[in-house]
Design the sequence.
């Protein structure tokens, strides 16, 4: 069973839509689960928020309740808000809500260490929710401190921490990712890397970064995700899946393409 650990759906102009913007013409249209099926999609998906919006999260949960393809949802709420703990616990009552994702990539590198977030993170731990870390390399050292502060929180790094593949730079990302992987509760998604490669979106350009992720996490803590339909900016669903199969030995494919996500998200 192929579980895609990272997919998006959206409706342009609805559910507090902010992105994608019109300049991204390849993905500036509505995308739903039937579109994913038509793209040759998986047996099950984790839907991940694309807008910093509670309305968007509510819509994703409605979709997941109505369509068995959606095994779980990673949503959004303002973790810094005074009422965040109550909202976290209320969201967690929906059985399809598996995690939350603040959009850290657009925030200060040390935002995650703000003590004001403590009550909301404690509520996530209490509710058994996962934390999706949408980060860039500049956030990784703060994320390591955050992980050590909250050892009971299940954390997954989205898109391999967005290394600078287009610039051909491995460091300091390589060392920072290894330090995070040394924390045994941390997982990572093999997703979004073609997009980070930009014009150099080839299997050869991405391979050194994938090799490092496999080396430090192993398939047991690495999960494949398409990042569809953002993936359409750099490739297509079938080709990205084929790349994953080429990189991972047969013994690790069941974990990478389903079992890690099932276990981590408690699907």
Sequence:
């Amino acid at each position: 069973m192929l579980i895609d650990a990272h997919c998006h759906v959206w409706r342009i102009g609805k559910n507090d839509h902010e992105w994608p913007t019109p300049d991204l013409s390849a993905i500036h249209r509505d995308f739903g689960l039937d579109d994913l099926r038509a793209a040759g999609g998986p047996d099950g998906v984790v839907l991940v928020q694309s807008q910093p919006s509670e309305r968007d999260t509510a819509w994703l949960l409605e979709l997941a309740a109505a369509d068995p393809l959606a095994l779980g949802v990673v949503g959004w709420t303002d973790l810094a808000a005074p009422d965040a703990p109550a909202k976290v616990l209320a969201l967690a009552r929906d059985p399809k809500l598996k995690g939350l994702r603040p959009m850290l990539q657009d925030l200060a590198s040390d935002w995650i260490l703000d003590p004001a977030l403590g009550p909301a993170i404690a509520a996530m731990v209490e509710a058994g929710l996962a934390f999706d870390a949408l980060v860039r390399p500049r956030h990784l050292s703060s994320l390591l401190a955050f992980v050590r502060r909250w050892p009971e929180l299940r954390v997954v790094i989205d898109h391999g921490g967005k290394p600078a593949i287009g610039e051909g730079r491995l460091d300091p990302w390589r060392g920072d990712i290894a330090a995070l992987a040394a924390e045994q509760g941390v997982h990572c998604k093999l997703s979004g890397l073609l997009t980070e490669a930009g014009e150099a979106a080839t299997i050869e350009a991405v391979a050194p970064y994938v090799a490092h992720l496999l080396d430090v996490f192993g398939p047991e803590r690495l999960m494949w995700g398409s990042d569809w339909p953002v993936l359409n900016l750099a490739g297509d669903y079938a080709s990205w899946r084929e790349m994953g199969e080429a990189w991972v030995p047969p013994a690790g494919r069941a974990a990478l393409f389903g079992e890690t996500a099932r276990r981590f998200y408690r699907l």
About this structure: The mean pLDDT is 97. The beta strands are 3-7, 44-48, 70-75, 97-100, 130-133, 154-157, 186-190, 222-224.
